[in-house]
Specification:
The protein is of the alpha/beta class. The protein has a single domain, classed as TIM Barrel, CATH 3.20.20.70. About 35% of the residues lie in helices and about 30% in strands. It has eleven helices and twelve strands. The protein is globular and about 45 Å long. The protein starts with a strand and ends in a 7-residue tail after the last helix. The mean pLDDT is about 90.
């Protein structure tokens, strides 16, 4: 049986970890390198670092910070934000990242998924999708949730799979930072559309929300931020809780 993964996410702006609600109202949560190293020691399975202002500011992702993270973190980590080319990915992987996450750039140029998969392998290409439920349709947004698109969650995820993505990271903008639980129904529907591993993001508030996202939503991994950053849930306690609920989890 494949084990489920717990993935702390660190949104980085100006070299600091930040967190908001529904993609707004950011507050400082600490040093990303120190936090990443701490989570690795506490039993996180992977980490995700997102340079959340890179696309809007028109610059590349933080390669120097990636080198610092790689020197301190002992577990696989993904980086994203402002990735637009093969050269961008090459630089980040050489800096020490294990995987890259692409979002806005893939919507703008879907063939980028194919190019990156051919160059580096699907295993290190994560298609991140930020979507919001609007009139019964999950509309895809770009630029850190600031721009709506004509793409829809399920069809875009399927296209991403066909183009060579190795994993889907779905963030529900409706649930992000609310701590009211993950978008379980949408995740379950997404799992029926694609065969790729799905990382659920947006809404974690209690340990039982993680049980729900795995048992009811069928997610392969659960990503969360503020509940870890602000000490509301500890990784060791969460993993113990999930095992007690008969969910296969890594040690």
């Amino acid at each position: 049986m494949l084990t489920k993964r717990i993935i702390p996410c660190l949104d980085v702006k100006d070299g600091r970890t930040v967190k908001g609600v529904n993609f707004e109202g950011l507050r400082d949560a600490g040093d990303p390198v120190s936090l990443g190293a701490l989570y690795a020691k506490q039993g996180a399975d992977e980490l995700v670092f997102l340079d959340i202002s890179a696309t809007n500011e028109g610059r590349g992702t933080f390669a120097e910070l990636v080198k610092e993270i790689a020197a301190e973190c002992t577990i696989p980590f993904t980086v994203g934000g402002g990735i637009n080319s093969v050269q961008d990915v090459d630089r980040l992987l050489k800096a020490g990242a294990d995987k890259v996450s692409i979002n806005s750039s893939a919507v703008k140029n879907p063939n980028l998924i194919t190019e990156l998969a051919k160059e580096f392998g699907s295993q290190c290409i994560v298609l991140a999708i930020d979507a919001q439920l609007v009139n019964d349709s999950w509309v895809v947004y770009t630029h850190g949730g600031k721009k709506s698109t004509d793409k829809e969650l399920f069809s875009w995820a399927l296209e991403g799979q066909q183009r060579g993505a190795g994993e889907i990271l779905f963030t529900s903008m409706n649930h992000d930072g609310t701590k009211n639980g993950f978008a379980v129904e949408a995740l379950r529907a997404l799992g029926q559309k694609v065969t790729l591993p799905i990382i659920a993001s947006g809404g974690a508030g209690t340990m039982n929300h993680f049980v729900d996202v795995f048992k009811e939503g069928g997610a392969d991994a659960a990503l969360a931020a503020s509940v870890f950053h602000f000490g509301e849930i500890s990784l060791p306690h969460l993993k113990s809780y999930l095992r007690d609920h008969n969910i296969a989890i890594r040690n």
